[in-house]
Structures are given as C-alpha cells and as structure tokens.
Amino acid sequence: MSKKIAVVMFNLGGPDCLDAVKPFLFNLFYDPAIITVPNPLRWIIAKSISSKRAPIARDIYREIGGKSPILEQTEKQRLKLENTLKDLSDDEYKCFVFMRYWHPFAKEVVHDVKDYEPDEIILLPLYPQYSVTTTGTGLIEWNKWADKLALVAPYRVIKDYPDHDFFVGTIAELIRKKIAGLKDKADYRLLLSAHGLPKKIIEAGDPYQKQVEITCAALTKELSGENLDHVVCYQSRVGPLEWIGPSTDDEIERAAKDGKNIIMVPVAFVSEHSETLVELDIEYKKLAQDAGIDDYIRIETVSSRQKFIEGLASLVLNV
Fold first, then answer.
1. How many domains does the chain fold into?
2. What pLDDT, on a 0 to 100 scale, did the predictor assign at position 281?
3. Dist CA 300 CA 171 (whole Å)
4. What are the residues facing 122 on neighbouring strands?
5. CA distance 133 to 127
6. Is 74 part of a structural domain of the chain?
C-alpha cells in the first residue's frame, strides 16, 4: 500500500522586497542560535543591528533586483525534486519549502503539511554542512510549530551531506566546464569559499568547519587530475567577534601577491543569493581587480542541476 510522504525542504530565506530587509534582519539576529544572549538583551541587540544594517543591506539587494532570489530558486528545486520522486517511487511525495527568517515561515508551512495529511514527513535541509546556526535552528523552529499546531505525523531528518558525490560531483562538473578552455591552469588558484561563523560557535562543538573541510577535501580529491592550487576560506564576516579563517578577502589579497588568478567556488551554498551574486560576483571581484588579479572566475552554485536533485531524491528515498 502506498504512503503519502511530505518532504519539507528548508533554507535561510531572504527579503522579497526592500521593505522586508529590516524585519528579515531582525528575525535573523533575534534568533538565539545567532545571538546567544537572553532576552530582553537579545531583542535590543537585534533591533540595533537590524536598524544599522538595513540601509547597507537594502543597497545590496538593489544590486540584484530589489529582493533575494533564494525563494524562487528553492521553488525550482522543490518542483524538480517532487517530479523526480514521483518518477522513482510508487509512494506519493509532495514537497514543501519553509524559510527560517522570511516567508514562507515554518508556521505557515506546518499548516500546509497538516492539510496534506501525510503518513510521514522527511525534513531536508538545503545546507550541505550541519551547523546549529543553520540546520539546527531550522529544525528547532519546525518542531516548535509542529508541536503548537499538533502536526503528529512521524518524521525523519536528513542531517547533512557534506561529501556526498551528488553534491561534490556537481561542483566538480561545474569547475571542469569553466576551466576547460584555460591555457595554463597553474596560473589559477581555487578559493573554496564557505560562509563563516564566529570562532566561539565552533569552539562550543559545532561541526560546521570540520564538515566544510570534508567537502573541500572530497572536492579536491575529485579534481586531483586537474593540478589546481587551492585553499579553503570563509566569507561574510560581520560584527566584532573573532571569526574562523582564513577570510576570503585575505586569500584574494594573498593570491594577488602570489601572482595567481582566481577561481571562486562557493562550497556551502546550493542556490544563488546575496552572498554569491553581490559578495562574490561584485565585491570580491572588485577586490581582486584592485589587487591586480587579471582573471576572476566564479563557479555557479549547484542550484537545480539534475545530478544534485537526483542525489537529494536518493537521500529522501533512503533516509
């Protein structure tokens, strides 16, 4: 007898218009997984940071059309995954998407899943590497609203997939396509860039940095025949805390001193958003040009490419 299975995909989210930037930022910094102090101090800090950063962030989103594209890209992933699962299984699969810091919120999607009346639920993070600040907080938020709204179907969780071939292999394919026409690969350095975290989160036991390194080790092994110089680095540092390193901007400067061109590879994002379309494509590219680097190549995220989606489907079917 076939089952009805709800697959709940989740990611960080992003503002859907310029007016949403400030409340999106407040939601982000009000999360106790991000600002680890009790209320009312956390509320005050979140209000202060979101107010100060909103004008800067609005300028960032203006660069990419006045909103984040992450929901539209995730919808493409959702539809493709749902269709792939229908082709591979006799069970009935329906995929849903919630975002942690902007619409559709977990509360909204729990209602939708409850209306679907599934026999079971599979929670699928769109974060390849686990962190309490990403997958962890998403699961906490989902469970909170599932409990409040009495969503009682049993559920299973896909925790991470940092070195799975469908993820690493897709990145490797994208790199190979970009470098196929290069005259001398020895002139280039791969910057394997992941979103950074404050050091104190890693020191408290968060596995994110180790898993990023696992991803990069698997990727460089996959590309071993290409003879490419590489380094792991971390982007998007904000605030006064010490963050894990080396930083991506420092590695751009070092590549320039070493006479290397750059192939920028996002290794922790599965869709395009402000950290790729603005930080990598505009800000870091300008930094590279200002430092005297002749060629700056950016590798796209895995997005809804077939190998990646089929890999997600395999995880869902075998969890």
1. 2
2. 97
3. 8
4. 7, 156
5. 11
6. no
Strand partners, 8: 96, 123
- Give residue-wise pLDDT tens across range 193-246: 999 999 999 999 999 999 999 999 999 999 998 889 999 999 988 877 899 999
The verdict on residue 172 lying in a domain is: yes
Structure confidence at residue 213 (pLDDT): 98
Asked if 237 and 293 touch (Cβ cutoff 8 Å), the reply is no
Is-contact 261 187, C-beta < 8 A? yes
pLDDT of residue 233: 98
CA distances from 98 to 93, 109, 174 (A): 17, 6, 27
**pLDDT at 113 > cutoff 90:** yes
CA proximity to 127, closest of 234, 10, 277? 10
pLDDT digits (tens, 9 = 90+) for 167-191: 999 999 999 999 998 988 999 999 9
pLDDT of residue 238: 80
Q: Is residue 224 part of a domain?
A: yes
- Looking at residue 296, the DSSP 8-state letter turns out to be E
Dihedral of alpha carbons 18, 281, 232, 308, sign:
positive
Q: For residue 239, what is the domain's CATH number?
A: 3.40.50.1400
Whether residue 289 lies inside any domain: the answer is yes
Containing 11, the helix (H) or strand (E) segment is strand 4-11
Could you list the residue range(s) of the whole structural domain that residue 34 is in?
18-62
Nearest CA-CA partner of 129 in 167, 72, 98, 156: 167
Token pair listed for 10: 């989740």
At which residue do the structure tokens 């792939």 appear?
A: 84
Query: Is 9 in contact with 74 (CB distance < 8 Å)?
Result: yes
